[in-house]
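I had to read the description of the data format several times before I understood it. For illustration, here is how one protein appears when written out as sequence plus structure tokens:
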Amino acid sequence: MAINAFGVKIIDRPKDPIESWLFSEISSLAKRNNIGMPEVGIYESPEPNAFATGWNKNSALVAVS
């Protein structure tokens, strides 16, 4: 629902240095906190923002504008 509402583009494989950095940071945080790797996405917004959503800690989405 959040993917459609915000037009989130899921990053399956990072395509540039910014996506690589974001994917790496989220992966590191997930490992450090012993949770599953969430989906990672980017969405367009005039202001910087981020959110996480999901039905549990091992099935989630982290999206960044």
Notes: Residues 17-32 form the longest helix (16 residues). The chain has two helices and four strands. The radius of gyration is 11 Å.
